[in-house]
Structures are given as C-alpha cells and as structure tokens.
Write a structure and sequence with these properties.
alpha+beta, Beta-galactosidase, Chain A, domain 5, eight-stranded antiparallel sheet, binds calcium ion, globular, 39 strands, about 700 residues, Immunoglobulin-like, binds 1-deoxynojirimycin, eleven-stranded antiparallel sheet, disordered N terminus
Length: about 700
C-alpha cells in the first residue's frame, strides 16, 4: 500500500532533528491525489497537492497572525503521526442519496515551536479520492490558553490561470450573480458600484466559496470549507499576478481580531474538491463527510416535503406582508385601519392548504403572519420590532393549524429577524415552543439587513454562532431550519440534520423585482457547480406564469416553463417550494402534474452530464417508490442532450411523462411553449432531447406494474 511515503524522512521529523528541509506526505485511497508537506529552513510548514502526478497546489504556507500574541507561523519542528485509513458508509436521514461512502487517508502533523514558548498546532489532512480537506487543531497546552486570530493565512498557490466561476468575497451576503473570468482577471471590487442589496461589504479582491475552477486540460477544482463552527467564514483573497488564493476571514468592526477561541479547539476544514469532470463535483460528498456524525439522533419528526406559500404574491406586489397597523401614542396598535391588502389571512392560507392537499404537497409557508412588518422598513433600530409569537388580527393560528391538520398539510413557520439578533435570540424559546404546540416542524428564518449589533457582518464568528445556535436550539423543539440570508452551508447538516436547507445565493425572488433583469439563464447552470456543492438550496422553483405582466411588466423569470419543472430535480433540497400563485397552477394542470409527482426524498443521485455554466442533467431515484425523476437545464444556448437510460432497473418498463421545450420555446420569446408526452422507457433506451435557449427537460419515470 502506498498510503504514505512519509517513512523515509519520518525519523527526521519525529525526533525534531535540526535538518533544514523535511518532507513527508499522504495519498488518496486510489493514489491519484497526493499531499506532501515540508518544513522550510525557517521552520514554516508548507504543503503541496498533486493530482495524477501534476502539481495543482504548489508549495503553500500556513500560519496564523494573533492579536494577543506573537504570530504562529514559523520556527516549527514537526512530528508526523502514524496515518490512518478510514472506509465507512453512513446513512443520510434525507439527502441526495441514502448511503454515503466516507473513504480517506488521514495524517496528522504536530507542529511545535522550537523557541521557549513551545506553542503547538496540528495540521490534519484527509485525502479522499475526490479531494482534500485539512484543518488546524489547537491542542491543550501551557503557553496558549486563548487565541485571538487576527488572520489565518492559509495559502493555495495555483499552477495555472484557471477559468474561474466566482462571486465576490462579500462579508454580508452571497446574493450576487456569478462572474466567469480567468483567475488573473478576478475583480471582486467591480461589484461594489452595482450592488443594491440590503447589505453588502466587499473589502478586498477576494471571492466567496465554493469557488469553482476549470483547467486547460479539463481538471475541475472547487474550494470551500467544511464544519464551520464557532469561527469566521473564510473568503479567499486573490493574487491575480501570482495566481493564488489566501484565506481571509470575515471580521467585525467592533474588535481587532476575527476569531476568539479558548484552546483546545479545531478550525473548520479547508477543502479542495478535485475531479476530472464537472458531474463528479456534484456527486462528491467530501463536504458532508468532513462533518461529524448526527448528534440529534432520531429526527423522524421532520419529513421532507414540497410546499406552497403566501410568498410569491408579496414579491409580485399582489399582497403585502404587513397588515397596516398604526402608531398610536407611541405604541403600534390595530386601529381597525387594515389596508386590506394583507397576504397572510386565515382565508388566503386556507386556499393554499386546499390546493396543497389536492396536489400531493405537504407544506404551506406563511410569511407576514406576525406583527412587526410595518415597523421594519426604514427603521435603523430594528431591535424589538418583530414579534414571533403574536399573529395579526386577521390570521387565526388555531384555526389555520387545525384546518391544515385535517387536510394532512403542515404549516411552515416564518421568522424574519430583520437581522436584529438580540430580539430574535430573546424570543427563540417561546417562538419554537409555540411551533411545537401547533405541530409545526419547519421554520424559514430571514436575516435581511445590516446585522444588529452594528459592526457585525453576516459571515463573521458572531453570526456563525447565531445561525448554529438557533438551529441547535430549534432541534430541542423538533424544529427544522431553512435560513435565508444565512451563513454558507458547510455540511453541518450531517451533524444537525434539522439544518434542512438555506438560501445563500441569488434566489428566484430576484426575478420578481430586481432592476437588473433578474437571474440570467446561465445563473443556475453555474449555481449547480458552485453554491450547490455546499449543500441544499431553497431556490423556490416552479414559476409557471413566467412573464407575470399582470403584476410587473418590467420583470420576468428568464427560463422556459420546462426548465422550471426540471429544477425540482436539478436543485437538491429536502423542502422544495411550488412557488407560484394557486391560480397560476390551477390554470395549468398538465405541467402541474410533474410537481405533484416529483419526489423530495432520494435513494440515489446520478449526474448524467454537465459542464459548469452551460448545462447539467441529473437523475434521482425516489426513496420508497423507486421511481426515477430526471431534470436537465441549459443556459442561454439551445442544445441537444443525450440520455442513456441504462441506470434504470433491469427487466423493468417505466411509464414516463416527458415535459420538454416546444419547437419554438425560448426563455424570452416563448417561455411557455412546452410539449408533454407519455412514453414507455426501458434501460436499453437511449434518447435525444432538444433543450431550447434557457430551456429544460423534466421526466418522471414510474415502474409499470
Ligand atoms: C428575503 C427572503 O429571501 C425572502 O424569501 C423573504 O420573503 C423576505 N426576505 C422577507 O422575509
Ligand atoms: Ca434573500
């Protein structure tokens, strides 16, 4: 076994000898990826990553600058611990698949300063067949009790000018359109004048992760992090001249460090997914594998579901979140002067419940049900504004939840915190207890706006802890969380499966109102290979009334109708919204059939083809029924897609319904042109499909009995 080639220099390292350059390394189980490491003559720890003998990360240093002590970056001695090989399979309670193989070789390098402080830090590498994760462990020690990290300077020195799919390293939001440029042409600051987001801070030429790179010979890399716990989010500062990334942590304006931790502790994993092609990036399970196993135990109280909701109608301007209370003698009161345009009324919600019950949709999200919305907009001091317990007078929680129960539907709670973290924290116990009382098991939370306390950013350590603690607390009340304006997903759903989904990208809502033309057709073919590598996305697909001229002449969804259906398979989430208005679905029963049929719980996922930013085709097998569903989407270019159905079960005939772009379909000129046909399909079939510009394809395949 070539697990390691460390033996030659092992003794040198082990005995802390004074030889100048010491090197060692570890390979992936299939031996394609090798990480080697060394100490240079200043005692700086450096690593190199090779894939199939090609250097992909050239000699790169690590090191920490501290606010409360001397930097921890040089003068090290090193000891390499005996490597271990792990090969296990674990099961996801819900996910893209049931069984996940976790197979890697791990080696720990113990670094110790040679000077009299003798501070220690370990670097742990896990090398998988699909990439590398490494983290820093600060063990218990005499001369380091608490670290105030000013900066973590982990280098990733690249070896070519990759084609890069990136969003800026914004400390406050990920809701940007992706850019596709050479690494040497990344200019994150070019986003600053264009942002009209509720909050945005782009301090330097850095990118957020996942950031995906393609090399000239087809190598695919994606940089991210795993298990982000009690630490700051990492952006990657770009050196366009030397073609390298360096970790830059998100900070705070209130303190002169970026992370504060008591020793012992571990940092998040720094991850690099490494594949020969784009589809393998999506099937890689490296990020979840680097997280700890389920700490919640039985989570069967949450069931993956499709949901509708009082949501799109507010984004279209058909109704409003607020009810129309007025300020009387310094207190917000129901004066009976409701403006009459409130969306979350008992009656309206019942309409969604009826529709959902009829169409195999398990949940109804209700936004704008609670007091506070009037006082949100324009208030700089948002603390104390939202109330997560008190419904508006026209929303009867008892009646709505009883009605939903009778119909077999669950109400999904909504907590828009307005980023006023203390108000939310104070009310969490009561708010989750209220949910438990009503049998609600999922909450969508929101963090729009600048963080309160002022000076904090959405992706800094303070907020990382806010998001994680909210989810951990929610679990105690059997509540699952879908955060918007969240911290990025880093695979924590393995440890806390009640972290079901999140936003953390430019979602469908931008198509309803953004002044810059919404999400262009290439958006989701990029997202599938970038943001989606991090974890489930609450994108809210399924808009049938693509142009919605009745509400907004200037806005539209920039895909065909067939693509809106395909998204239920392409985008993974254990909660998938059927986002359009009830009346728009009722007017289109034929395409609605796909939403009715499509699964949300998967046994298996196969990425049949794809290129980053161009197109992707994904097939998923439903848990329980073993039916298959296929989704394929393309960017602004039309294309032919070949589907080889050999993944279907042997000796089985499937009754399929195919939803494909019509002959004249086009995301802008003719988005509603769709052909829906039935066909018997077996695993010997190979079929060609035409995807229109901005188009898509959705297929349901049920076993014929
Ligand atoms: C932004 C969220 O992304 C959106 O889904 C929600 O409707 C609004 N905030 C209001 O909370
Ligand atoms: Ca948002």
């Amino acid at each position: 076994m070539k697990l390691l080639y460390y033996s030659l220099l092992f003794c040198c390292l082990l005995t802390f000898s004074s030889c100048n350059v010491k090197s060692s390394g570890v390979s992936s189980p299939d031996e394609n990826i090798t990480v080697s490491f060394l100490l240079d003559n200043k005692g700086v720890f450096k690593y190199i990553i090779q894939y199939k003998q090609q250097k992909i990360i050239d000699t790169s240093a690590i090191g920490f600058e501290l606010t409360n002590a001397k930097a921890l970056k040089e003068g090290f001695m090193a000891r390499v611990k005996k490597p271990v090989e792990v090969n296990e399979t674990w099961q996801m309670p819900w996910g893209e698949q049931l069984n996940v193989v976790n197979n890697y070789n791990e080696v720990t390098v113990e670094l110790e300063e040679r000077d009299n402080l003798k501070r220690r830090v370990n670097v742990v590498f896990r090398v998988f067949n699909d990439g590398v994760g490494f983290r820093f462990e600060f063990p218990k020690q005499e001369n380091l009790k608490e670290v105030l990290i000013k900066e973590e300077n982990t280098e990733f020195n690249l070896t070519e000018d990759y084609k890069t799919f990136w969003i800026p390293g914004d400390w406050d939001i990920y809701e940007h359109l992706y850019s596709t440029t050479k690494l040497s042409e990344i200019n994150a600051k070019s986003y600053i004048p264009k942002t009209n987001l509720a909050q945005s801070y782009i301090p330097e030429n850095a990118v957020n992760t996942p950031v995906t790179l393609i090399g000239k010979d087809g190598l695919h890399l994606s940089f991210h992090e795993a298990a982000l716990v009690d630490y700051s989010g990492m952006t990657l500062k770009v050196d366009t001249e030397n073609l390298s990334f360096k970790s830059k942590l998100v900070g705070s304006r209130n303190i002169d460090y970026k992370v504060k931790r008591s020793v012992p502790f571990n940092t998040p994993w720094r991850t690099i997914q490494i594949t020969d092609n784009a589809p393998d990036l999506i099937t890689s399970k490296l990020i979840v594998n680097l997280n700890e196993p389920n700490k919640l135990g039985d989570v069967s109280w949450f069931k993956p579901m499709k949901y509708t909701g009082v949501w799109w109608e507010m984004h279209l301007g058909k109704s409003s979140w607020d009810y129309g209370m007025e300020l009387v003698n310094g207190k917000w009161k129901d004066t009976g002067k409701a403006h009459g345009n409130h969306g979350a009324t008992t009656e309206n919600v019942k309409r969604f419940i009826d529709f959902s019950a009829k169409n195999n949709i398990g949940g109804v999200l209700v936004e704008g049900w609670n007091t506070g919305w009037e006082r949100w907009i324009g208030f700089e001091d948002r603390e104390g504004v939202f109330d997560f317990i008190t419904p508006y007078p026209d929303y009867d929680l008892d009646e709505v939840t009883a009605y939903a129960k009778e119909k077999g539907v669950e109400i999904i709670m909504h907590h828009e915190t307005s980023a006023a973290t203390q108000t939310y924290e104070k009310q969490q116990d009561k708010a989750y207890a209220l949910m438990k009382k009503y049998g609600m098991h999922a909450v969508k939370s929101g963090y729009v706006g600048k963080i309160l306390p002022k000076g904090e950013y959405h992706h800094g350590q303070y907020m990382v802890n806010q998001y994680n603690n909210a989810a951990i607390k929610a679990a105690k009340y059997q509540v699952a969380v879908n955060a918007h304006e969240p911290i990025k997903a880093t695979g924590l759903r393995r440890t806390y499966p009640n972290i079901i989904s999140r936003e953390g990208l430019r979602g469908q809502e931008f198509n309803a109102w953004s002044a810059d033309g919404g999400n262009p057709p290439e958006h989701l073919p990029i997202v599938a290979f970038t943001r989606m590598l991090a974890g489930p996305i609450d994108f809210t697909p399924g808009i049938f009334n693509i142009k919605f001229n009745e509400y907004k002449k200037e806005n539209q969804v920039n895909t065909t109708l067939a693509q809106q259906l395909a998204l239920y398979v392409v985008i993974y989430s254990p909660i998938q919204m059927a986002a359009d208005l009830v009346e728009h679905y009722e007017a289109n029963p034929k395409p609605l059939q796909f939403i009715k049929d499509v699964g949300v719980e998967w046994l298996e996922t196969k990425v049949l083809n794809g290129e980053v930013g161009d197109f992707v085709t994904i097939a998923r097998k439903e848990k329980g029924t073993e039916n298959w569903f296929i989704g394929s989407i393309t960017d602004e270019n039309k294309r032919d897609i070949d589907i080889d159905f050999s993944f279907l079960d042997d000796n089985t005939t499937y009754e399929s319904i195919i939803y494909k772009d019509g002959k004249n379909a086009h995301w802008n000129n003719n988005p509603l042109d769709i052909i829906i046909e039935k066909k018997l399909i077996r695993n010997s079939d190979k079929l060609k499909f035409k995807l229109a510009e901005g188009g898509g394809l959705a297929i349901s395949l049920k076993k014929k009995i």
